[in-house]
Amino acid sequence: MAESCTSLPNPDATAIDVPTRQRARLLLPVPLDGIYDYRIPQGITVEPGSIVVVPFAGRRLIGVVWDDAPPDSDEAEVPESKLKPIEMVFDVPPLPAYLRRLVEWVSNYTLAPLGAVLRMALGPVDSLSPLPGKTAFIAAGITPDGAKLTQARRRVLEALTPGAPMSAAELAEAADCGTSVIRAMTKAGLLIETKVAARAPRPRPDGTRPLPHLSEDQAAAAEVAVAAVEARRFETLLLDGVTGSGKTEVYFNAIAAALKAGRQVLVLLPEIALGAQWQSRFERQFGCRPAIWHSEVGHNNRRDLWRDVALGQAQIVIGARSALFLPFPDLGLIVVDEEHDTSFKQEDGVIYHARDMAIVRASIEAIPIILASATPSLESLVNAERGRYRRLVLPDRHGGAALPDIELVDLRVDKPARQRFLSPKLLTGLRQVLDAGEQAMLFLNRRGYAPLTLCRTCGHRLECPNCTAWLVEHRLVRKLACHHCGYAAPLPETCPICHEEHSFAACGPGVERLAEEVSECFPEARFAVMASDMLMGPHAAAELVAKVQNHEIDLLIGTQMMAKGHHFPMLTLVGVVDADLGLAGGDLRAGERTFQLLHQVAGRAGREERPGRVLLQTFDPEQPVLQALAAQDRDGFLAVESEARRSRGLPPHGRLAALIVSGPDAESADAAAAGLARAAPHSRGIDILGPAPAPLAVLRGRHRRRFLVKAGREVNLQALLRQWLGRIRLPASIRLQIDVDPYSFL
Ligand code: ADP
Ligand code: ZN
């Protein structure tokens, strides 16, 4: 009925003063590039950025009113009579123009469809409608007689701030417990149930609290950053300072300046660095918890936060990479901490680098961006050399804490016992530290018990049925698992090839196996393993970190999850079990990444008055990366690395894109790859390598072939790729993944 009403001929249509905008161009969050025309019915007003509902291919979809086509565009006009109407407009602010430009930019750069990028900028659907009143809880403020305070109940009370009621679901999520705990606490008189008309307003971070007195270098860096915030100008500041030099303090100064100016702030952090320690530090400085956006944040919190950001009510958001697409109406500063971290690169869906696109956002919004790191990426350092970024250096650890001493342990000389992985030198070091009542950490970037299981009788290796990858044994959960596709199966009783019983041998160590060795060598030591698959969620991780801080743990064994940000004053020895691990394989950044990771791990040792010591176990002590680590010569290493890349035309001195063609079987993948190869462009300044089977030749059952496109920095890589791909048609069973500036070479 509504349909026929709004489609009645409008008697005013021919009148002179009628608004001319009867149609709107809409971008829909579907993986298509198309912008679609819709009719704006009477009674509905829209503007660019308005979020609306429209019919599309028999469904109803959310869409965003996009800007008018440029006057010279050759978009075909659909006749008015064929247009479907916009059905409704949501009562939220329109997507800001800056964000619309960012969506276009990212699509253009990554070659991902516009609609797919738009999807990242839209929150959960229910962020778009205001919420009805709901039941919420506040702390009673007293502990009635007989009410027991269990761990979970304590966490619930800690999660509550006075004056800010929370729903049962929010509380349960914040306290990592079931909603039954909330009900029981209400019954016991620990919580009081109330009704809230709407959500309580988000607490406002306070930018006027006193900041710590800064050292000379810190003050100089902070001054530049604060001035850029106050001047509201685009500038990329590379805050390059050793671990513990006060980078966080410096960017807190810039955040305070943005808050004082009443503007919003986005801080991007790698997901695993977003720990409790960072959050409580933030809370101490700004007087409230930061709003957090990442994949583990529950649906309701995401919904509320998206809306609050759009309304300008959330002033600071700390998030992992996808926070980049939040609809801030008035952003004043972006900070990317640990800017070198490769987790900023999203590897599926829209393949983009959040650090790089954050710089784009800052330039579109004309605001400063701070990139902080103790081991900046070569990309950023070269940009600083070229004068595109301004480098701010903090050369010293705060309070004069010494950098740890880094020694290489040659495993060919200092051999571990048979089926063991810790060298006598490292064992002695651990013994000394434990005897002195200090703490130690063993780092091995490998989850599980053993990376490879083979049959001693016939040599058969247990492989994933869906991927070109070994199955990794996880002994604690009695499983073999594929770390690429998630396949899991119990360890078979007999070898599937030779049928010999009990013939499997574990090859090489994972953290679980290391834990076994530690418990045999140091039976009295209290140890724990920190790896992403062994901790159930952020609360478990935070609890473990707290235990280490309280010295309830003597020895921590972990993967890279442990490398970030934590500050353990009693930790004086770090043992890197296999320093060669990251250097194998055909990754152009293997050396750089190993340096960054091991440097970061080393930075865990000796953060206060106790000096730290780091032992790197290696079979190749001459390796330049390890030599540079031992000599603490980051800049020397990077100079050599940079030159090596320059001579091979690799990033950051040249441009790179990867194309991965995949099909359900080897033949179709090969045929598609051959078709692509025939259509490949030949021009000066570009070099196309491949097709070749990808190192992960089969992944989740799909057969993969790879091209690598190398081009000079002057080449418009995107235009070239568009022309190339425009010339071919691929069968429906074939998928093509385009990765501009690839970081993964698997
Ligand atoms: P980074 O981010 O470079 O690793 P942090 O900002 O975390 O360094 O500083 C390391 C430690 O030193 C932190 O505990 C921090 O609070 C402290 N710190 C740094 N600068 C100062 C300062 N100017 N005054 C007081 N404490 C400081
Ligand atoms: Zn697999």
Instruction: Using the CA coordinates, give the radius of gyration.
Output: 28 Å
Strand order of the largest sheet: 10-11-9-12-13-8-14
Tell me the fraction of residues in β-strands, as a range.
Answer: 15-25%
Global shape? globular
Helix vs. strand class:
alpha/beta
Low-confidence stretches: 1-19
Calculate the terminal CA-CA distance, rounded to whole Å: 55 Å
Tally of extended strands? 29
Small-molecule components bound: adenosine-5'-diphosphate, zinc ion
Q: Biggest β-sheet, characterized? A: 7 strands, parallel
Q: With helices defined by DSSP (H or I, 4 residues minimum), what is the helix count?
A: 20
Give the helix proportion (percent range). Answer: 25-40%
Mean pLDDT across all residues, rounded? 89
Question: Can you describe this structure?
Answer:
The chain has 20 helices and 29 strands. With 746 residues, it is α/β, with parallel strands linked by helices. A 7-stranded parallel beta sheet has the order 10-11-9-12-13-8-14, sandwiched between helices. A hairpin with a 7-residue loop joins strand 1 (23-27) and strand 2 (35-39). The two termini are 55 Å apart. Bound molecules: adenosine-5'-diphosphate and zinc ion (ZN). Residues 464, 466-467, 469, 482, 484-485, 487 line the site of zinc ion.
Architecture blueprint of SSEs:
Blueprint: H1 2-6, E1 23-27, E2 35-39, E3 51-56, E4 59-65, E5 88-89, H2 97-110, H3 114-121, E6 134-139, H4 151-159, H5 168-175, H6 179-187, E7 191-196, H7 216-231, E8 235-241, H8 247-260, E9 264-268, H9 276-286, E10 291-293, H10 299-310, E11 316-319, E12 331-337, H11 354-365, E13 368-373, H12 378-385, E14 390-394, E15 405-410, H13 424-435, E16 439-443, E17 452-455, E18 472-474, E19 479-481, E20 488-489, E21 504-507, H14 511-521, E22 527-530, H15 537-549, E23 555-558, E24 571-576, H16 590-602, E25 613-618, H17 624-630, H18 634-648, E26 654-663, H19 666-679, E27 686-699, E28 702-712, H20 717-726, E29 735-740
Parallel strand pairs: 8-13, 8-14, 9-11, 9-12, 10-11, 12-13, 15-25, 16-23, 16-24, 22-23, 24-25
Antiparallel strand pairs: 1-2, 1-4, 3-4, 3-5, 6-7, 17-21, 18-19, 19-20, 26-28, 26-29, 27-28
Helix pairs in contact: 2-3, 2-11, 4-5, 5-6, 7-8, 16-17
